[in-house]
Design a protein that fits this description.
By secondary structure, the chain is an alpha+beta fold. It contains eight helices and 20 strands. An eight-stranded antiparallel barrel has the order 13-14-15-16-17-18-19-20. The chain has a six-stranded mixed beta sheet with strand order 2-1-3-7-8-11, with helices on both faces. It has a three-stranded antiparallel beta sheet with strand order 4-5-6. β19 and β20 form a beta hairpin. α2 runs parallel beside α7 and α7 crosses α8. The radius of gyration is 25 Å and the shape is globular.
Length: 408
């Protein structure tokens, strides 16, 4: 019995240090996503108020997805409603403590402006609901650049700042719309944890972005939120669902292009700006230039849609996110915001569904596939590569032929 007790004591002494090491290792590997969310949710103007709330709610849903598909755990600091004040923001910034593996996400949606003698390109954020004069801007304004410097000092692994606000002088009013063209927000049933990890676990550095360049205003809608925020979140969903690769440069380049296109449809000019200083742990994909290329802003069907009927008139208004141009017979189709591919029939005066976008069968080569993009009697599958080119397999020559392009 004595020998048995000695053996148990020896095992406890042996195992205890191992357990302590494992516990410490587990604690140090834990990552926190510090989410500082500042928004003018009590704004007097109902369109801006509802648009701001929609933007924040949509962002929070995506933050939940980040937590779900990564090892990062969220910690939210919400500065909305009565807490939308400069002193609350400054205290929050001071009090944040970060480990070296943490991520900081700062998001602002509200009034933005710039002083006439302001030299940097980033907007000044107004932590309040009504600007009563220049004296008020000094009391309640805080520059995005100042916030960036404060957050950089926290030494987090990854720091992200996003501001959806105007970037012009105070005399310029903030544009807003009840109805807008070109914005679509869809649900995504397919999300890929590897894509989330590429963005939030395998990236280190600093990112800062604002919705408009100096001298410009930023649009917002009470149906879809800020133009820039909506574009950012839809591209974020695409890259973490249908795409085979995700990085911050692609995300912000495509967000910029989509915002520019949406604002043009609404007779405005708004050009987002951003700065990226990112080091990525590993990458097996070449860098890509998304200028003048479309990979769309929405998710994909994993299989043929249940309600797919190739000869039904497409009478429901949907936003065409791309033109699919096939070189054969110079045929032009439209990729819609719900992933259907349609063609205009002048005889009926309406669009007909002839195909749909699907997850690619060859992710090493293509980012997504087009099913039936020629006519409803063919079952051809065309692959769209990372540069927007459309390819078809030539069974006679045993090679891929370049047969079309997808234009934004």
């Amino acid at each position: 019995m004595k020998n048995k007790n000695n053996l148990l004591k020896w095992l406890v002494l042996l195992i205890s240090p191992i357990l302590i090491v494992l516990l410490i290792s587990n604690q140090t590997s834990a990552q926190t996503l510090h989410c500082i969310i500042a928004g003018a949710t009590n704004e007097q103007n109902s369109v801006i108020r509802e648009g701001t709330r929609l933007s924040i709610n949509a962002l929070m849903n995506e933050i939940e997805a980040i937590e779900k598909y990564t090892s990062v755990r969220r910690k939210v600091y919400e500065l909305t409603g009565a807490n939308f004040k400069k002193e609350h923001l400054q205290k929050t910034l001071r009090d944040i403590n970060c480990d070296e593996n943490d991520v900081i996400l700062f998001y602002y949606n509200g009034h933005g402006f710039r002083y006439r003698d302001q030299s940097d390109k980033w907007p000044t954020l107004f932590m309040g609901y009504h600007i009563e004069g220049f004296d008020d801007t000094y009391l309640r304004g805080i520059s995005l650049n100042e916030i960036a410097n404060e957050l950089k000092s926290k030494d987090a692994r990854l720091t992200i700042l996003i501001a959806d606000c105007c970037n012009g002088e105070l005399s310029v009013s903030s544009p807003f719309d009840i109805e807008v063209n070109g914005i679509a927000s869809l649900s995504f049933s397919v999300r890929n944890s590897e894509r989330f990890k590429e963005l939030y676990e395998q990236s280190s550095g600093f990112i800062i972005a604002s919705s408009s360049e100096p001298g410009q205003t930023s649009g917002i809608s009470n149906r879809y939120g800020g133009y820039f925020t909506n574009s950012f979140l839809e591209i974020h969903k695409e890259l973490t669902s249908i795409s085979n690769y995700a990085d911050w440069n692609d995300l912000l380049e495509k967000t910029k292009e989509r915002t520019i296109s949406v604002t043009k449809l609404n007779y405005r000019k708004q050009t987002p700006q951003f700065q990226i200083e990112i080091i990525k742990r590993s990458t097996s994909h070449p860098s890509r230039n998304w200028q003048d290329i479309i990979t769309t802003n929405n998710g994909a069907f994993t299989n043929q849609p249940n309600n797919f009927v190739s000869n039904n008139p497409y009478r429901i208004h949907k936003f065409p996110v791309a033109r699919v141009v096939m070189f054969k017979n110079n045929e032009v189709f439209f990729l819609m915001s719900d992933n259907y591919i349609v063609k205009y029939d002048p005889f009926y005066g309406s669009m007909f569904i002839i195909g749909y976008r699907a997850l690619t069968l060859q992710p090493q080569t293509f980012q997504w596939d087009l099913i039936n993009p020629v006519n409803s009697f063919h079952t051809n599958v065309f692959g769209v590569d990372y540069w927007g080119k459309i390819w078809e397999w030539n069974i006679y020559r045993m090679r891929w032929d370049y047969v079309g392009v997808v234009y934004y």
